[in-house]
Design goal:
It contains 14 helices and 21 strands. It is of the alpha/beta class. The structure holds 5'-deoxyadenosine and iron/sulfur cluster. GO terms for molecular function: tRNA-2-methylthio-N(6)-dimethylallyladenosine(37) synthase activity.
């Protein structure tokens, strides 16, 4: 028997890319694919795929420097095929082919169901490039997910693309217009995952709460989809990300209070606290409307842990605007938050505007991160003494230790030789470290 070919995928960027990488590996695997098995070593691979992200600066440069490092490997192994996938591929595919002759294959985020044909083309010695936004739905064309065992948590993309056109963001250009998958396909995929041992599913979308996929009686909302998933036996936890404040509908807020499987964690980016900047960002909500929204969410689910994204140094942001961001962070008290220095993205409206002095932007980023870290640590420390539920995901570094996530997405270490991966245990938190909690089984 000949050895199966080996595929090494390196994933950059968001969780949607993590999901796409899994599906790409499945598309190239076993029957109907090209017979690849995955490897975690690039030097062992017959094909290397970089699944790239274009959201912030230097992404493309990182891809080129990573590609350059494969030169030696390719010289040793002329049959090695090198591909670039994801949003940099979408935005700069032809340029990549021109600039880096090592690259055999380029595939965008909307056409990777065609990977088997592209791989065959690359194997025959031709360059293969596909950055279409095809008519057909790639998820319909991909094979049903395999039945092999896997870890207890999984991502499931339910919606892709975005029609919001925030002035700083490339997503509407690289991922395209907002499209929701039909509910029955999502439910089938979820059941397949649960059969493989999955107990927690995170529903993904660039604008996941704008979900409006076809259901049995017309379009469904994200809340209706969550209630349909709630009925799947063996699925114990549901999460979703990333949401837009304008799409937090009443039924979704209510689900946070009423659906036991829906975890008390919500990633709800606001980006900035100044209404002037929000308007220039084309966000179509204000700081005040965002704060009132969080009040309503907390009324439905008082213990919900809030998470967010921020951009500092957006064009024309003044110190006063930035203060408004700090004020908003103080008021919300985020359990997690991600902050970024504004990075001009070619082709987006904000890229043309006057930029904030980079040193000033760096300074603001540091001040914001210090505030976020303070709240994050405090909220983590407040967990000590509380009882949480932990889904065990993998053994810890110490003997007899297990690591999992609480309902609030905190990493929790538990010393328990009996603990099994995939088990959900009641745990009392006894200690809080910089990046994780320690607990004891109750
Ligand atoms: N510059 C900096 N941060 C950005 N984000 C998106 N586009 C940019 C940009 N051009 C951030 C936003 C978004 C997160 C995924 O990345 O905060 O919510
Ligand atoms: Fe980008 Fe999110 Fe704005 Fe859409 S809503 S344009 S994905 S930041």
């Amino acid at each position: 028997m000949t050895e199966p070919k080996k595929l090494f995928i390196k994933t950059y960027g968001c969780q949607m890319n993590v999901y796409d990488s899994e599906r790409m590996a499945e598309a190239l695997a076993g029957s109907g694919g090209q017979g690849y098995v995955t490897t975690d070593r690039a030097d062992d691979a017959d094909m290397i795929l970089l699944n790239t992200c274009h959201i912030r600066e230097k992404a493309a440069e990182k891809v080129y420097s990573e590609l350059g490092r494969f030169k030696g490997l390719k010289a040793e192994k002329p049959d090695l095929k090198i591909g670039v996938a994801g949003c940099v591929a979408q935005a700069e595919g032809e340029e990549i082919m021109r600039r880096q002759p090592l690259v055999d294959l380029v595939v965008g985020p909307q056409s990777y169901h065609r990977l088997p044909e592209l791989e065959a083309k690359a194997r025959s010695g031709e360059k293969a490039l596909d950055t279409d936004f095809p008519e057909e739905d790639k998820f319909e064309k991909l094979k049903r997910r395999p039945k092999s065992a896997r870890g207890p948590t999984a991502f499931l993309t339910v919606q892709e693309g975005c029609d919001k056109f925030c002035a700083f963001c490339v997503v509407p250009y690289t991922r395209g217009a907002e499209v929701s998958r039909p509910a029955d396909r999502i439910l089938t995929e979820a059941r397949d995952l649960v059969e493989r041992g999955v107990r927690e599913i995170t529903l993904l979308g660039q604008n996941v709460n704008a979900y409006h996929g076809a259901g049995p009686d017309g379009d469904m909302t994200l809340a209706q989809l969550i209630w349909a998933l709630d009925k799947i036996d063996g699925l114990e936890r549901i999460r979703f990300t990333t949401s837009h404040p304008n799409d937090m509908t009443d039924d979704l807020i209510a689900a946070h209070g009423e659906c036991d499987k829906l975890m008390p964690y919500l990633h709800l980016p606001v980006q900035a606290g100044s209404d002037r900047i929000l308007k220039r960002m084309n966000r179509s909500h204000t700081a005040e409307s965002y704060l009132r929204l969080i009040e309503r969410i907390r009324a439905a689910r008082p213990d919900i842990l809030m998470s967010g994204d921020f951009i500092v140094g957006f064009p024309e942001e003044t110190e006063e605007d930035f203060q408004a961001t700090l004020d908003l962070v103080e008021e919300v008290r985020y359990g997690y938050a991600y902050s970024f220095k504004y990075s001009p993205r070619p082709g987006t409206p904000a890229a043309e505007r006057a930029h904030v002095d980079p040193a000033e932007a760096d300074d603001r980023l540091q001040r914001l991160q210090a505030l976020i870290t303070r709240d994050q640590r405090a909220i983590q420390n407040e967990m000590v003494g509380r009882e949480v539920s932990v889904l065990f995901e993998k053994p810890g570094r110490l003997d007899g230790q297990m690591v999992g996530k609480s309902e609030y997405l905190h990493a929790v270490h538990v010393q328990d030789a009996q603990a099994r991966i995939g088990e959900i245990a009641k745990v009392r938190i006894v200690d809080s470290g910089p990046n994780s909690l320690a607990g004891e089984r109750v």
